[in-house]
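Name: Flagellar hook-basal body protein
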Amino acid sequence: MADAFSIAIQSMQNDMQRMDIISENVANSATPGYRRALSTNQSFGDVLQSSSLSNVTHSIEITLPTVTSVLDTASGSIKSTSQPLDLAISGDGYFELTTPDGLAYTRAGNFHINEDGHLVSQDGYPVSGKGGDIIVNGKSTPTITPSGEVSDGSTAVGQIRIVSFADKHGLQTRSGGLLVSTNNDAETSDSSAQLQIGFLENANVIPLNEMVSMLETSRHFESQQKLFQGYDEQISSAIQKLGQF
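Structure predicted for Flagellar hook-basal body protein:
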């Protein structure tokens, strides 16, 4: 396949991946605690460095890099809900949840007590405490302090664990806005961040900015289509002229 075709196809595939990332951000713009993904790829210098030169008689073979996503770790705005089990983290850190696929992390603190007395997330995943799951036995709503201590009446039942990562960009977004670590050996530590009770963190997505990025990506995709079609027409024309001889 000609190089121009290869470049156009890879570029259009990259645009489709960017569009998927942008669409996910827009879809979660109202999800509490959601942190948007940013599309990224290698710089031109990195591409040249990774390209191979087999010998001096051959040209350098350059492959366009694929698009990957990284997490935007900027905090979202805080809104008041006045709900005693709605929590927002002030500072760096994430709530830790136990899911069927392993540990996951979130900034969304819209918690509730399930029928078994466990403190769980909106999707029903248990919230990790420093000593395990947090279980409430009483009928009344538990109280939570800014340091994360949970009390059932006058009885302390646990402390919510807030973790931080040495490599914040090693986290990636999964379904439901949950975050997972791409590195199984990622170092975590207990965060000293405080909680705001009766508040939730909004997504750090600005829909208008995402729509502008979507428009730019769409225009770039269209330009690559024109490049592909133009090059195809040139080859067809060349073949026809050769056939006349």
